[in-house]
Design a protein that fits this description.
Blueprint (H helix, E strand, L loop, with lengths): L3 H17 L5 H8 L4 H13 L3 E3 L7 E3 L12 E4 L16 E4 H5 L4 E5 L15 E6 L8 E6 L3 E9 L4 E5 L8 E4 L3 E11 L2
Antiparallel strand pairs: 1-2, 3-4, 5-6, 6-11, 7-8, 7-11, 8-9, 9-10
Helix pairs in contact: 1-3, 2-3
Length: 200
């Protein structure tokens, strides 16, 4: 159970992310919640880490990542009735079926976390600005997977991964208006693999 001050800190971090697209520093948090001690802020952050609301990346100036517990995205039932099949091409007859899909089993797991998408770099994959993507923690991935990639220990992005023979990594957007980004392999850290999304 978080204290009121810890909850206020969490809310400030979420609002800061929404407004700026990156995490606040301890000094910015202290100013934002109206205290002077960065040591107190660090205690609040530690409590938020233990509660599973954030993660802290070592040796990084803006080192906070928001972790939304997937369970928080579901209120009430965690399975949905499967009523039939719907065509995305030619129309087909919709036939009611007495089945259900366990939504929680698709998304919930010990190493799963959620991130809110900001931007349109993956729209051709159907990942839109404002969507909530579900990812699984991994420090490696295979070519072609959509990954959470941390660049220079500073900025995280969701892109398709491609490793190159010249020891570089290409992060490929799914938007014809944008160009792939190429980095030296040691500049890119894999933090997770994309599982699916929720559009709220």
């Amino acid at each position: 159970m978080l204290t009121m001050s810890q909850r206020r800190t969490h809310e400030f971090i979420k609002k800061f992310f929404e407004e700026h697209g990156y995490s606040p520093t301890a000094a910015e948090i202290a100013e934002g919640i109206g205290i002077k001690s960065r040591g107190v802020v660090h205690r609040y952050l530690k409590a938020l880490v233990q509660a599973g609301h954030i993660a802290l990346t070592p040796k990084r100036h803006r080192n906070i990542s928001l972790l939304t517990s997937v369970q928080e995205l579901f209120t009430g039932a965690v399975s949905l009735p499967l009523l039939g099949t719907i065509a995305a091409g030619q129309p087909i007859e919709a036939i009611p079926q007495q089945e259900s899909i366990d939504v929680a089993s698709v998304f919930v797991g010990a190493n799963r976390y959620a991130l809110k998408v900001k931007g349109d770099s993956m729209i051709d994959e159907g990942i839109l600005d404002g969507d909530v993507v579900i990812c699984e923690k991994h420090d490696s991935a295979t070519d072609g997977q959509i990954v959470v990639a941390l660049i220079d220990h500073e900025e995280a992005t969701l892109k398709r991964l491609q490793r190159n023979a010249d020891q570089t990594v290409t992060l490929i957007p799914a938007n014809t208006q944008l160009h792939p980004m190429i980095y030296a392999a040691d500049r890119v850290t894999i933090q997770g693999v994309y599982i699916g999304l929720i559009r709220i």
